[in-house]
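Lab notes, practical 5.
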Amino acid sequence: RLPLCPQVPYQPSSPRQVANTLALLRGRAGKTVDLGSGDGRLVLEAYKQGLRPALGYELNPWLLCLANYRAWKAGYHGKISFLKKDLWKVNLSDCHNVIVFLAPSVKPPLATKLLAELPDDARVVAGRYPFPSWRPSSTLGQGLDQVWAYDIKEVRR
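Output from the prediction step:
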């Protein structure tokens, strides 16, 4: 039975949010994950721009279906993964680029998890809401389109 009210409501990223997010990951390499990947648009764009492997974690089965359909339609079937996994239970120690468009209530416990698991050279890009206790390395956009990049090595300092 599905919960009636998911912990994090789904809001698709705008084209500008997607562009800003990927701009803050430009030139980077390594495994890229989107925590709460929704319909998969950020993972799809990350893969298109050469960030590989690219995968999304999403609990909503309808959004997973939509994400897989979009990947198939774009010709990336089998190249991008969307996994039905709880982001609190996945190990992120091999992730170098993490995309997070999640509600503010999730940010403090998630910050603890990211600091405990991510490698020093990882970069976290947050959309819609910044991490309240972290200082961003850079930011891009205004209002709802604003995104924040955090370099884990800097955050740990």
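Observations recorded by the TA: The beta strands are 32-35, 54-57, 81-83, 97-100, 123-127, 138-140, 147-151. The longest strand covers residues 123-127.
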